[in-house]
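A student in our group prepared the protein record below, which I am reviewing. What it holds is a sequence and that sequence's fold in C-alpha cell form. My question to you is simply how this chain folds and whether the C-alpha cells agree. Do not assume that whoever made the record got everything right. I have pasted the whole thing underneath without changing anything:
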Amino acid sequence: MVYGVILAGGKGERFWPLSRVEMPKQFLRLTSEKMMLEETIERILPLVPKENVRVVTGENMVGVIKKEIPDLPEQCLLSEPLGRNTCVAIGLAAAHLARIDPHAVLIVLSSDHLIRPTDKLLKILEEGAAIASEDEHLITIGIVPTRPETGYGYIKIGDKFEHAGRHSIFRVAGFAEKPRVAVAKEYYFSGNFLWNSGMFIWSAEAILKAIAECEPELSKLFVEYAGQIGTDSEAEARRQLYQKAISISVDFAVLEKAANVLTMKADIVWDDVGGWNALERYMDRDENNNVRVGETMVLDSYEMTVYNDAQGIITCLGVSDLVVVRSGDITMVLHKSRADEIKKMLTVLEENEKTRKYL
C-alpha cells in the first residue's frame, strides 16, 4: 500500500517574523487561503487516503495541527522530541509503517512547497510508487530548472532507466550542493542537471536497508526503537533515539552513497518558497513590480516586497529593492540581496534575553 510521509518539523526561519517558533512556515497561508501543510496533505489525497498519511513534526507543533486540521486521525501524527534533520524523520516514519505493512511504499514530501499542477505531480508519484513497490530503488523527484538558481541543490542525471512507464527516469550520476552563479548557469544550460526537490519515493524496506548499509550506527538505533513501537516504552524509546541519533539529511546519509538511486524528471511548477524573495515568483505585482500584501501604500518605489500581517498600514516612499514586513509586534526591513541572512538577526535576538521573545 502507498503512504504519504510529510516532513513538517522545520522552523521556517527565512520567513521570520511571519514564521515564528510556535507558528513556523508550514502553518502559514502563503500560497493560498489554506495552510501550506494542509495544501500538501490535500495534494496527495487522490492517491493516498488520509488515514495513510503520516505527518512527522515537532512535539510543540502537534497541538497546532490538531486544531487547524481536526479531521486528521491521531495515528497520522508522528512527533519528534528534537530536530534531527530528514534522515531520522524519514527513518522514524519508515519504522512505524514497516511494522503495520511490510510492503509499504512511502511518498516523502516537504510540507512547505508550492507545486502546480497537482494532477501532473500525482501521475509522477503514481508511476514512481509502482516502480518502488517492485524493487529496492530509491527514487528522487528532479525538477526541470527554469533558471540558473543558486539556492537549490542539483541532481546530475546519468543513463536512462528503462521501464514501461510514460515518464523519463534516469540513474543518478551525482548530487551537487547550492552552486555559485557561474556554476548554476553551467548546470542550467547543459540540460544534464535537475533541481533536487526533496521529494522521494521508496519502500519502507528499501530505505531502512539503505540506512543500514550507509549509516549502520543510526540503523542500530532504529532497530532498537522499532522493537518498542506499540508498547508502553515507545515514548521513552523515541526520546532515546533522538538523543543518540546524529543530525543528518537523507541526501548526505544515504542518497549520495547508495548505488540504486533514480531520478524522475518532473516538468512541473515547483518552488520551495524558501524566503521572502520567493513571493515575487508567484504573487501578483503592481505596475512597479512591487509585491504587496495587506494594508500598504507604496509610492514612487520599485521592486519592493511589502507584507503587512498586523493592524495599521505600511507606507513606503522613494525606496526600492527592500523587504518590509510587519507581523504582530515586529517590523523588519532588509535589502533583498540580504534576505538569505535573516538567521544572523535571529542569532542576535536569541543571545539577548530581552529580545528572545521575538523568535
Summary: The first strand starts at residue 2 and ends at 7.
